[in-house]
Amino acid sequence: MTPVLLGWKLYELTGSTLSVGALGLSEVIPAVLLALPAGVKVDRSNKHRLITICMIFYFFLMAGLLIITSGWFASQLSWLDKRSVKQLMQWLIFGLVFGTGIIRAYSSPAMNAFIAQLVPQDSLVRAISINSMTWLIAAVTGPAVAGLLLGYASITIAFTITCVAIFIAVILFQLIKAKSISWQPGKTNTWDGVKEGLRFVWNQKALLSALSLDMFAVLFGGVIGILPAFAVDILHIGPEKYGWLNAATYLGNFIAIGALIATPLKRKQGLTLLYMVAGFGVCILVFAISKNFWLSLAALFVSGLFDGVSVIIRGTIVQLFVPDEMRGRVSAVNSIFVNSSNELGQAESGLASALMGKVPSVIFGGCMTLFITIFTWIKAPTLRKFEY
Q1: Model pLDDT for residues 299-325, shown as the tens digit of each residue
Q2: Which of 5, 83, 135, 362 is 20 to 30 A from 40 via CA?
Q3: What total of structural domains would you count in the chain?
């Protein structure tokens, strides 16, 4: 729910796609800068305890956003002029989102590494898929519910529900028992641990190619960062339909991953990944030229189908071919690629939209995604031939 709520609020405050794009940048900067040392910390730590701490801090940051975006907070600043109030709210939002990026640097690799400790190796592929499905249930319903709450209730009620959900999650997570620490590094310092993780990813060419392909494709092809502007200025829809527009890609992810749980890919997974990313790029081009809500919704939904398949292939590669004592560090490297593609992609969308215009910037992004796929096809034969 949170990206939808904050994206709408910032566009309401500023009317600027650049401001909405900067929202992702404020989270990705700490997430990327801290990812590698965080990965070492994850491998050295009790992952259950680390995740719990991250969730508690995240709860307090969401409570801060609840207060800042409320009408009560604005009323307490009546001594300031309206422009100053908007600027203050904008920078406070960026500051709290920056804090979520710090937490994300630790929580993301910790979660990925912890999953592998919960199930036996022969059940790991299915566990990865089911875990993605549970996340996607929230990713589909969250934006839709957020849009409805923005339209029919208020952002304060929406953030209250968010805080309650996180509080419940902290309690439920304690039902899982802590697991043993996999890596006993001895005298190995943090920097040496970082280099080991980077060296492992660099030497696994199929893994490196898959991560790079996804990063650059979503970096240029993602449109989430400027969806509020498309919703208001091109499709002329309100927050209710905007929420569904946000949920469409995730709904496609959900259906694709559900299908893969029932019928896993048996061969030519690397080749399939390339086809899926190319299909994603075509969908983005369709979205760019659409002026009809239903066509735009369909384009994002189908792009989610393609993206869902690529998520499972990439996630399986990361989990299957990484030894347990390296999972935190490799997951941290993976999180750099993922965060760069998503949040930097959001910032890139906002900047490109401000420089080129909304529609031309998305057309450019779709074309770049297709170009990157063709380039990877030619330059990364290891990925093209890869199977698991």
Answers
A1: 999 998 998 888 788 777 776 667 666
A2: 135
A3: 1
